Amino acid sequence: MIPELGHFALALALALSIAQAALGLFGAQRGSARLMEAAPPLAAGTLLATLAAFGCLMWSFAVNDTSVSNVAANSHSTKPMLYKLTATWGSHEGSMVLWVLILALCGGAVAAFGRDLPSALKARVLAVLGLVGVGFFAFILGTSNPFDRIWPPAPDGQGLNPVLQDPGLAFHPPLLYLGYVGCAVTFAFAIAALIEGRVDAAWGRWVRPWALAAWSFLTLGIALGSWWAYYELGWGGYWFWDPVENASLLPWLAGCALLHSAVVVEKREALKTWTVFLALLAFGLSLLGTFLVRSGVLNSVHAFASDPTRGVFILGLLMLYVGGGFALFAWRAAAMAPTGVFAPLSREGSLVLNNLLLCSIAAVVLAGTLYPMFADILLGQKISVGPPFFNTAILPLAVPLIGAMAVGAVMPWKRARLFPALQRLWWAALGGLAAFLLCLALAGARIGPALGFAAGAWLILGALADIADRLALFSRPRAALARAMALPRSAWGGAVAHAGMGVLILGLAGMGLATDRLASLKAGESVELSGYTWRLDRVESAQGPNFTARRATVSVLGADGRTVTVLEPERRSFPVGRTTTTEAAIHTSWLSDLYAVLGDERDGAAVLRLHHNPLAPWIWIGAAIMALGGALSLSDRRVRVSAPAPKSVRAGEARA
Amino acid sequence: MTRKRRRLNVLLLCGLGLGSATALTLTAFQDNLVFFRSPSDIAREAPPPNRAFRLGGLVENGSLQREAGPDGRPLARFRVTDGASTLAVTYAGILPDLFREGQGVVTLGTLGPDGLFRASEVLARHDETYMPPEVADALKRSGHWNPAEGGAPPAASWNRLDPAARPSNESGG
Question: Complex ipTM, two decimals?
Fold first, then answer.
């Protein structure tokens, strides 16, 4: 009964979305206030229906209702409750329900918080969100019904891939989807602006928080996925340039460009057409990511839940939304005349450079991700593009981007001179140089990591210099506290996010100095790696809730002979699904990770792979700081007060 | 600066950005594309020396040997077959959890002048029944499996050229 209710709720949500799209668009076109007022309640109704459907699906998983084929294929009665619940979005069908749930949540949020929006704009935004919803509800109901019954019911479920039974991965999809679907809201705003032929500061003020929120969630989602790959897959790496990883990086890059150019629209009313274009692009790349992951066209380690027959439907949706969006753009973009004027060397100019470089990086990643697919289809060649390609192609673009990141932030709007800006950053540059030389002195002639340390120091110190300069910390230290209170949160957020990027790059640079060693040890034997003695004490069997394991005990001794930590890497065998997983053991001191993986056992000896990863945790800490910067900026008073402030106030914020 | 001039500048800058991105992509492609080859491909045409490529096929039954390398590192030796040809592979490292004899495998590495493939990476998927698409394709091309007749034949029959065990021959295909 409950699954049927869920199925009905999905169909209801589809009907409500159709009404939301039709009434919103038609009402706004006709200027009929009554029709336009119907859109917010309809969005709320869609949200309620989708929530009900999601709740029914979750309930089916919680009680392990194996007459539902989705549950039978993806769950098992012995699975811990947390993973039964997270299995709701572990399968293809369930993850699409999560997708539309988040879309409905966004629609509900626009309906609830958009009281100050012009009514026509609000109706059109809700209508476009409804239109996106229609496509995806139809996709779920037509090709991937999560509530399909099977008869007779399976005696028990077939379990979920044990690699996915992990808290990191359980919450990776919701965060990622919040990011993907957040791009749908900026897309809806862009389409509404194209229909109206008008983009102004108020529009920018509305789009920026959504872009910022989507970007922050994407940052967290990508970081969580990368962290999961680091500790769960046991390869000791954190990013593999796998197509599925790239699929999430592409909207991140476009979203990053979008939130920077939305600042220019909001403050200076320039770059309007470009911002609208980026909003279309970011959502297009989100849909492309959904298509690549959900259709199974990529054959990748990460695409656990995929089915090629559905690809055509999503490809159709992709063509419809992106093609339709860009067609509208080509038709209407000329209507949006820029009003803000700026010199190439200015804050706006540096943001244009940022956009250009981010988009170039996105283009390189896109080419590297899609080329193997096209080579396979068109040329019949089996090709893969690996990390060496991305590293060589992206590094030359990343270097100027990082260089300009600190400089652009201290430039004034409209017109700037380079020398005063650089003058503010001289000690950041000095810090970068010191980090470069220090790394060369300590770690030998390793140019890559040394450059990374220099870049990280430059960004962190540059962000500090920016804040110190705004507070007049050195010229008028007494008034600094008062100025700090008065400084808008968005300024703090920007500086924090830039510093977070610096921390992340320090982590990447540290990982460039990582060392590892493979050893076959008997109990009691030990090996040396990067100043530590790693001793294998014993290997024994252990019993988990739904697996059996072989567990090694490895003592790590420091140079003074004291035990630093005891690592217990495992190899787990899951009888349900007959799979084996490797559980790496990690000890972190926040400055470095000691990482051990247990391999095969033979003749009483166990193969161990040992890693020493300097600064590894900083990669994810840096990403978290970036997301924190986004959140800080979102908490800015001006975001909550959505009406545009008077010109005089805005002029006061822009530093001359 | 006039508006026209400025727009031209922006366009030039965009062109520069896109152009450099394209140039970077193309040069990086030239050096870093990794081709997939099956043992038969290599038997037919030797790949360029010292260029990494991906070798895929089935792990020949009974071919896996684990030993300690000269420096005490564990070393795995096995043979990869696509039915028509086989190639010997060495790999220093921990084999993935789902590496089994008779199952599909994709390895990344270089072919030495001694005809030995030195793998730097071995990929096996987290699924027992999974067949890497490249491997499935290589098996089809070597004429050992007609996908129209259902799933791939049991791996044990792939070890040697054994016409009696080739289902495609039995059905005259």
Answer: 0.75
